[in-house]
Design a protein that fits this description.
This protein is mainly beta. It has three domains: 2-90, OB fold (Dihydrolipoamide Acetyltransferase, E2P), CATH 2.40.50.140; 98-166, Nucleic acid-binding proteins (OB fold (Dihydrolipoamide Acetyltransferase, E2P), Beta Barrel), CATH 2.40.50.140; 179-241, Nucleic acid-binding proteins (OB fold (Dihydrolipoamide Acetyltransferase, E2P)), CATH 2.40.50.140. The protein is built from three helices and 15 strands. The longest helix has 9 residues, at 2-10. The model is unreliable at 1-10 (pLDDT under 50).
């Protein structure tokens, strides 16, 4: 038995297949030679909540894309598993590592992200910025890439991540008079300006005033260059548009 297992594992390799369809048995995938295979639904992902192939929201993200899998060959048998590939990849990460994650969905409490070809995690709102925001989508959009730090790897392989942790203890201080790049996160209720966060240091946030003449030049989500007029001990900034 041991010899058979060793022989099986020595023929393991990584490969890429395009997801071309889905049926009741799993994903229909195609290699670069045009050969098609069915990858059983239990091998699609290591995450239990995504194993339901009737969840079109999850499966639709895979259709038409290339996915990396592990291929096991034992005599005439071939096993293709994306879940095995993900379990292998997770071992290269540890708490404290920096990653770039893509936003795939969101709710009022967190952004849900993927990185490294299918590994999943979340960034809670209070780990995005020191600013108080209503919901994560006030700052980010689906499809955005966010550099963040791994704060926890759960037993089920799910990651908890933080953008704030990237900057804690940083000596990168913002000074009065300098120009900084900011992202507009919301409009002030009285229409007198906008609430922003620094693009490269979420430990800082602030507002910049506008006059009615220039009101239409700006919109939520826009990245703008602003001048720092003042900064207080809580890292709140008063800013002015650089025009």
């Amino acid at each position: 038995m041991l010899g058979t297992l060793q022989s099986f594992l020595t023929k393991e390799k990584e490969a890429q297949y395009m997801v071309i369809d889905v049926d009741e048995n799993g994903l229909i995938i195609e290699d670069k030679k045009g050969n098609t295979y069915t990858m059983p639904k239990e091998d699609i992902t290591m995450y239990q909540k995504n194993k339901d192939i009737t969840d079109t929201k999850y499966v639709s993200r895979l259709l038409g894309t290339y996915i990396t899998v592990l291929v096991y060959k034992n005599k005439n048998d071939v096993t293709i598993s994306r879940a095995s590939y993900m379990k292998k990849r997770i071992q290269k990460f540890q708490k404290g590592d920096d990653v770039v994650a893509t936003v795939v969905s969101a709710d009022a409490k967190a952004l849900y992200v993927e990185f490294d070809e299918g590994l999943s995690g979340k960034i809670y709102t209070n780990q995005l910025t020191s600013s108080k925001v209503r919901q994560p989508l006030d700052i980010y959009s689906i499809g955005d890439n966010i550099k963040c730090k791994i704060t926890k790897i759960r037993d089920d392989g799910y990651f908890e991540l933080s953008r704030i942790e990237l900057y804690k203890g940083s000596s990168l201080a913002v000074k009065k008079g300098e120009f900084v790049k900011c992202k507009i996160t919301k409009k002030l209720d009285d229409n007198s300006g906008y609430f922003v966060e620094l693009l490269y240091n979420p430990m800082y946030s602030g507002i910049f005033d506008i006059n009615q003449k220039n009101n239409l030049k700006f919109k939520v989500g826009q990245v703008v260059d602003l001048k720092v007029l003042d900064v207080d001990e809580k890292r709140h900034l008063k800013l002015r548009a650089a025009y």
